[in-house]
Amino acid sequence: MKIEIWSDVACPWCYIGKRRFEAALSEFPHRDSVDVTWRSYQLDSSLPEHYEGTELEYLSRIKGMPHAQVSQMFEHVSEQAKGEGLNYRFDQVVVANSFTAHRLIHLAAEHGRQDAAKERLLSDHFEHGKDIGSREYLTELGLSLGLDAGAVEELFTTEKYSDDVRFDFEEARALGITGVPFFVIDRKYGLSGAQPAETFTAALTQAWQETNPLVLVNAADGEACGPDGCAV
């Protein structure tokens, strides 16, 4: 079963959704047969490489909301994150363009390190105040994941993986995805947002049953017990 997750590393609900999905997947009896692929999405592709201002100022400006209202939103999201074992620090978030970070995730995918790259980027951005648009930070992250130094350097000297990231954007538009996180199961089921773990469990179970229906081995009925008693 193939699951594709459209997500932005600058999206706080995407990290929460990742944790809830992982909780459901860890209890799914067929989890070893599930292939998870992270797909790129940008909430704001117009962001400069570095934004001169805080996350509070940035969101207040683009959403047209007063600072107090944005602060209340931060408190609500942080409380939800805490319930998943995450410690959001919106006061330390560095606002930056995530395009090159998405390219790094595509590079990591070629070496079986995609989920690890996604996890680090989300955690470093929301919990540790790292600059996800920084060449220095992304290089350090790539090397810590065991990626080749030359391959990481290509992210800053060439356009490698840029087309892959843009293809993910186009796929999202084609599927009608307008917000993230968005989970697609076998291109048949779509789940929008950081759903409760129980919702992910129900979707995984339903998709698996449809793909792997129960097959009766013997057409003849054998002895069995039912609501009315046992056959003799």
Strand-pairing-aware structural class: alpha+beta
- Mean pLDDT across the residues is 93
The stretches of 5 or more residues where confidence is low (pLDDT under 50) are: none
The spatial strand order of the largest sheet comes to 2-1-3-4
* Total DSSP E strands: 6
CATH topology: Glutaredoxin
Quickly count the helices: 9
Distance between the termini: 42 Å
CATH class: Alpha Beta
Task: Give helix and strand order, one letter per element, not per position.
Answer: EHEHHHHHHHEEHEE
Shape: globular
Number of domains: 1
Radius of gyration: 21 Å
Give the proportion of residues in helices. Answer: 40-55%
Beta-strand portion reads 5-15%
CATH homologous superfamily identity: Glutaredoxin
Major sheet: size, sense and barrel closure? 4 strands, mixed
CATH architecture: 3-Layer(aba) Sandwich
